[in-house]
Amino acid sequence: MSKSTGVASRPVSVSDVSTPRAELFARVLDPASRANPYPLYAALRSEPVSRQSDGTWVVSGFDEIAALLHDPRISSDMTNAGQSAGGQSLIMQDPPNHDRLRAAVMGRFTPEVVESLRQEVHNLIDGLLDAVGSGTSLDLVEEIAYPLPVSVICALLGIPPQDEARFHGWADTLARTLDLDPTMSREEQAAIDHAFTELHHYLENLVADRAEHRGDDLVSGLLTGGDRGEPLRGQELLITVRLLLIAGHETTVNLITNGMLTLLRHPDILERFRREPELVVPMVEELVRYEPSVQFRYRAALADIEIAGTTIPRGSVVVLLLAAGSRDPGHFTDPDSFVPDRIPNEHFGFGGGIHYCIGAPLARMEAQIVLPELVRRLINPRLTMDPPPYRPTAALRGPRHLWIEVDGIRP
Amino acid sequence: MRVMVDLARCQSYGQCVFAAPEIFEISGQEVLEYDSAPSDEWRLHALRARAACPVQAITIGPAAGPGQDLRQPPATRPAADSVGVLR
Amino acid sequence: MSGYPSSRSERVVIVGASLTGLHAADALRDGGFTGHITLVGAEPHPPYDRPPLSKRVLAGRMSADSTGLPQRQDLDAHWRLGNAAVALDRDARTVTLEDGTTLGFDKLLIATGTRARRWPDPDEAALTGVLSIRTREDAVELQARLAARPGRVLVIGAGFVGSEVASVCRELGLDVTVVERSAAPLAGALGAWAGTAAGRLQRRHGVDLRTDTSVVELEGDADGRLRRARLSDGAVLDVDVAVVALGAVRNVEWLAGSGLTVDSRGVRCDPYCRAVDADGRPCDDILAAGDVACWPHPLYEGLLAVEHWDNAVRQARVAATTILHGPVREHTALPTFWSNQFGLNIKVVGVPGRADQVAVLQGSVERAAFVAAYGRGGRVIGALAVNTPRALDAYAEMISRRMSFPPDLNAADAPDPVHVLDLAVPAAG
Ligand SMILES: Cc1cc2nc3c(=O)[nH]c(=O)nc-3n(C[C@H](O)[C@H](O)[C@H](O)COP(=O)(O)OP(=O)(O)OC[C@H]3O[C@@H](n4cnc5c(N)ncnc54)[C@H](O)[C@@H]3O)c2cc1C
Ligand code: HEM
């Protein structure tokens, strides 16, 4: 079977983590922890709601995260914790505005719309794998996982194929804005601003065009409205479309990449998956639990919140460490094991409560199509480097490259 | 195949509707309705829905009852010999 | 644990083969029980789900046959269906069935639930067209009558089941009159404030709702068919279908003389689901769960008797734990239930019916999407979420923590200002 060179000695045990508890989250943010943050999470979980030395409150227990995801004293609008107005999009807003915008999207992001992209996803993965050609090594991120989700979103939004290349560029740059990252450099910020402006102009023209010629794409749908949501217009429409692009991109890249990485680290499961392709249904869920693209989300406390024997004061920055909750031994048996058919599997990979991921059905469908295709077509895949290099961002975690050697690609 | 949703747990996330629109439906704004005895044709879709449910509220299985108890063919094993029937 | 062997020789008899019985059997097998399980049921059907009976089945969108519940595993159970238990002999540890069979047990789980309270006058209750809704057969008959498009349907009692029936009638375009003795529908469970809102909703949907009124007489014709109903205010309604929705009665008659503490609230249990004998001592070998049981809950005064789906499932699991391991896990789950009517998703947690105050803390009643919290003695004791099903967990947490009422949430979608309303203080119990 595939041999992966130098599999990281995982999991590191909690006792190896000697950092004071109030500094643990700083270590999570440190890019050096990216390959395996889970021992840090386990250490944090010994105090499921933990105040860090910088004043943020990190929540890492399953029950506590579940409670706060549903708590009306918790806000996604970080101005409530004294931060400058970040995004205006619905992911950073609270009810009632959040609910109104979300209803508008949900009204048009229907099962039929998602289903209509199924063939497109098949075509895309076929094309991307064909393009690898007769090579015996590939970077799964660059060649497969990265291009695919943007193309899917372009299809969803009805972006004409000739504009897709530009979209890929903007998406790359803007992916980082989902992370509230204090370490971002001035240049990065400038690049992001530039991409925002360009995307904005592009979308303005797109919307103007769709306003004239309605199609069956999502932008036209949002302009028209549906039975459950009012139509969106102007800035709100632009910002919402931009959110779909950002939220649906790198998250899905990481899901596909982490999926292949995890399978290559578990040759027995990979073998079983070859024999039982339907295993993909529970397995994708387990991937989102075990190696979640979104590791944590920021929130603000609107009132004092008594929880787990402590009180989070009003105005605090709260970190919901979703990935830690999804590995809480109080909720999952053997949480650090990858169990492809884990049932039940109630995880936080797509969040929970009113901000539960809108794109989850699309992400599931993409992964459920792409992973079996990769496993079917890549002949004897092997990891070239383990752990692979990671992107620096902590909240949105995933490999920057995943180099794989193969004996060939099946047609 | 029988489907049961624990509607006390259900929070109307609607993920099941995406996975198995033949079985699940959100009616009105937030009311989940479902066909509890769907055709076996939709088995894969039902399994997708069960996996996707954010609160894992979906149970799928054969209809409960004597017919399902493989080790108790009623004709061949009268209850009296093993269940402790005292006359 | 000594005294609680789960050996192959152990015999568990479960009386009542419905939601509670099925989940108890499932939990026993989950817990590794390898002994004999016998499920005794008065109804001829294997376990089925009742909530759809007053909703989809009644509306004709689902057949009653489809309500059969799934089973998650091979239960290896012995089923005695269509055969009611008629007596319990505690000393001999036997249950006698209708057909004369006697079943010996090492552990007995009483899960006989409730039945619909009948119209008090037996002759009037026997009129054709006077129905209630508890069983599959009830639902099939009522559905057929609604499908025949009667001129007007009378619903007697505006609790949850009555209100759901009224909702289905309106959905089918049928005229419906709901007669409720108290001041508002659902007031018993949700208090007068929410009841009044529910009343407005029903009227807006075209229900002829008559509160502070009762039905005093049902009149039939020579063929014994319902024709008219006389109301306490002197009004006379021409109706040929009347749905008696006056709540439920616990199926405990078969336990008469058993020496257990049993009354109209059901079988008295301790927090581990063990039935309590006449001296107040819990019996290790006799348990009760589901609609038929009542027990002391740490958060509420007196005894709690909960007639909801969720309680049946959870209490069944606690009972199974006690059967397998003895009194190690208390049944402390908060009561919670849902109802779907007039297009709304209604979810409730805690015991709002015992509250002395209520306040809407999120959303707006006018837009029919809100959460109201209920307080008693300055503590949060319940919550009602209408079309906001993702909000309720947080309130369950507040109830468990006995948070002071009204809680300071400062929610982004709170009404400004938050109004706290006083409710007439109901008696505990
Ligand atoms: C129309 C309707 C709608 C409902 N809607 C909702 C809802 O929306 N939400 C919610 O939370 N709950 C709802 N419920 C309540 C829920 O269905 C009950 O809480 C649940 O059925 C309780 O299960 P149980 O097994 O304890 O009792 P039951 O379901 O009452 O079952 C008891 C069983 O025991 C049998 N039995 C009785 N006596 C004997 C005997 N002597 N020997 C043998 N067997 C016997 C009975 O025939 C019955 O089959 C509804 C109930 C009804 C009737
Ligand atoms: C594997 C892929 C994905 C993962 C792991 C993921 C994860 C998440 C998570 C955890 C949240 C919750 C954020 C919070 O609570 O603050 C979220 C929200 C969101 N996601 Fe995803 N996502 C994925 C793919 C997608 C896709 C493909 C789309 C769009 C097409 C999308 C659109 C959104 C949107 C719009 C929100 C905001 C919802 C709201 O605030 O109400 N996501 N996602």
Secondary structure blueprint with pairings:
The complex is a heterotrimer of chains A (411), B (87) and C (429).
Chain A: H1 24-29, H2 38-45, E1 49-51, E2 57-59, H3 62-69, E3 74-75, H4 97-108, H5 111-115, H6 118-132, E4 137-139, H7 140-145, H8 147-157, H9 164-174, H10 186-212, H11 218-224, H12 234-247, H13 250-265, H14 267-275, H15 280-290, E5 297-301, E6 305-307, E7 310-312, E8 317-320, H16 322-325, H17 360-377, E9 378-379, E10 382-383, E11 403-405, E12 408-409
Parallel strand pairs in A: 2-8
Antiparallel strand pairs in A: 1-2, 3-5, 4-11, 5-8, 6-7, 9-12, 10-11
Chain B: E1 2-5, H1 15-19, E2 24-27, E3 31-34, H2 43-52, E4 58-61, H3 79-82
Chain C: E1 11-15, H1 19-30, E2 36-41, E3 77-81, E4 85-89, E5 94-97, E6 102-104, E7 107-110, E8 114-116, H2 122-125, E9 130-131, H3 136-147, E10 153-156, H4 160-171, E11 176-179, H5 187-204, E12 208-210, E13 215-220, E14 226-231, E15 236-238, E16 241-244, E17 248-250, E18 262-263, E19 266-268, E20 274-276, E21 282-288, E22 293-296, E23 303-304, H6 309-325, E24 336-341, E25 344-350, E26 357-364, E27 369-376, E28 379-386, H7 392-400, E29 420-422
Parallel strand pairs in C: 1-2, 1-7, 2-3, 7-21, 9-16, 10-11, 10-16, 11-12, 19-22
Antiparallel strand pairs in C: 4-5, 5-6, 8-17, 13-14, 14-15, 18-19, 20-21, 22-23, 24-25, 25-28, 26-27, 26-29, 27-28
Helix pairs in contact in C: 1-6
The structure holds flavin-adenine dinucleotide and protoporphyrin IX containing FE.
